[in-house]
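Email to the structure team, subject: Phosphatase PAP2 family protein model.

Hi all, the expression group asked for a predicted structure before they design truncation constructs. Nothing fancy, just the tokens so they can compare against earlier work. One-line instruction: predict Phosphatase PAP2 family protein, return tokens.
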Amino acid sequence: MNDLDMDDIQKRFFVSLGLIWGVVLVARPFTKVTINYADFSANLYLSLICACFSLLAGRFGLNLLRGLASLIAGLLLIMLPMVTANYMAMSLDMPLADELLANMDAAIGFDWHSFIAFVDARPLLAAAFGEAYQSFLIQVVLVPALLLWLGYSRRAHAFMIAFGLLTLVAAVVAIWFPAYGTYTHYGYTDGQLANINSYFGFEFIEHFEAVRNNVEFHISSQGISGILTFPSVHAGVAYLLIWATWTNIWLRYPFLLLNIMMALAAVVNANHYLVDILASIPLAALCIGIVRLVFGMHRNAADPAVSSQPGMQPVHFDQQGSRMAGSGR
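Reply from the structure team: attached below.
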């Protein structure tokens, strides 16, 4: 990856981040949500430091460090507008959609009670779903860094923007589908199940009710939560992670399996109906299509990886992930 390529990637990356922030900041005054920016000052300052370090690394041709610093800055910058969008959507206090979502599950033949009973009766399966569900943040940090190290710089940055974009699109859709989710709708209590950890199916409720019922709601770093039910952001990100790792054969199948588990774990460990998981598929596909255009990936479907270390022979990967030392673009 040469300096001009990285310049192009970072320009598209930071402009996209600015647009995501812009959309949220323009829409926020029309809701009852406010942001305590002082609470998030440490994250904002750290993101600025990382952005400056990225520029400095670029001056010395250290494109791997440059890309890593920009991804860290991007992740720190993108979290606040993403969380704000969630709360803004739920603050509009639309009628609850639990009955509708439960009926949609029934219409496609999904028996939530039987599925939960099946998983709960199998401790190893329940534990596997729990681990997969909680791999969300680990993967969001690890996968872009791994892609960058393997030379897929454009894809790594595109994934991060797709992550933020998915949350915005999901928040817009969720305006009309606020819901408590399956555990509350079906009358379960936290700790009722033998092997399934249902903590995440209940921990968001205080925030969900507060943002809907209060005249004003302040977002603070002291407590934030994912409060969208339909569509599932958790599942949507799982699909983005499958796309991001699909280009390399060594990453493809492990992350495919893990993220299928993570998407289904939103039904098991959180508060989601199956239709929440299915509805995330077209949203993820839409976001992938957008970032492919934004980052110029439609012109380079193979997304070949190139070593970014100065003084080293460029190393490319073919579509199957095999190394092709010294090959050209």
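The chain is about 65% helix and 5% strand. Residues 198 and 269 are 5 Å apart (CA to CA). Ping us if the truncation boundaries need rechecking.
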